[in-house]
Structure of DNA polymerase IV:
Amino acid sequence: MTAAQIRKIIHVDMDAFYASVEQRDNPELRGRPVAVGYGAQRGVVAAASYEARVFGVRSAMPSTIAMRRCEDLIFVPPRFDVYRAVSQQIHAIFAAYTPLIEPLSLDEAYLDVTANQRNLPTAWVTAREIRRRILEETGLTASAGISYNKFLAKLASDHRKPNGQFAVTPEMGETWVEPLPIAKFHGVGPVTAAKMERLGIATGADLRAKSLGFLTQHFGRAGPWYYGIARGQDDRSVNPNRARKSSGAETTFQTDLIDPAAIEAGVLAMADDVWAWCDKTGARGMTATVKIKWRDFRIATRSKTAAEAISSQDNLRQMSLALIRSTYPLRLPIRLVGVTVSNFGTATEAGHAPPRQEASLFDLQSG
């Protein structure tokens, strides 16, 4: 790759976004361990401040476990309208530097600043100015990773958190990933990381030592992706028009359920919520997924892809019922169910993309 072809990618990631907004808006919370979520017995942590993370409190953790780890933990109910408004402020700042913005969530995005429309000398200076403006205009801190591709930029943004930035240059990219734990790699989820460790792959160097044939044999279509990232390679472009890939809804029951009729009522309610969004937006997906969380907090999913797009609420309801019924007889009572529709289109980005973490029943754990 010549100097003219080298991209300049920034991954901006807000620091403990939801919790930081709450601490910003309520001075009494500053410097204290805060969890955004509901502290009730069946609540879940949506986000944790850095003061809470010291105690091992993490997002998606059941509130009962979080409170055991940190007795002084303060739960604050989420205010998603506020988070969305702040996110819009942040994205307006991004837009002053580049039109090539790929949002990943309310609090993180990729920016391609190769064109350098503000005539700043380097991507490093651009990232520093963006972070300064975010602090001045929102009162919040952000971290940034700068590199020549998206994979490395995302890894780099974690390297100086919170309120810092780090760059991985083309000269250092291939060797920089070698000592990193494989579980830190974007696109390697807990299930895949465990499989890799069973195959003797614990670090980037271990992954690089495996041939493309070996990786394809054990990981199928994801093999080329893993082969590339072990060498610091990622050809994906920043896509400002990235389509939404799924829509889902989930609910936690007031008590753990074992009665199929009650569980199915919950599944149907979630299917109706998802279809309401599909109906409003005109989106039609081909894949339905049902998620369940058992009493012991293990998570499982079942999915089915139709031959053509799911075209009616009744079709989604019937697919969702078939999926939940495929888990019978239940091994344990269920505390949560969810329904998701995905596979909205067939367009793909250029280059290999990180593999979607497919989960078979009993594969995933939470909390």
User: Anything to note?
Assistant: Confidence is low (pLDDT under 50) at residues 346-351, 357-367. The first helix runs from residue 17 to 25. The CA atoms of residues 236 and 349 lie 7 Å apart.
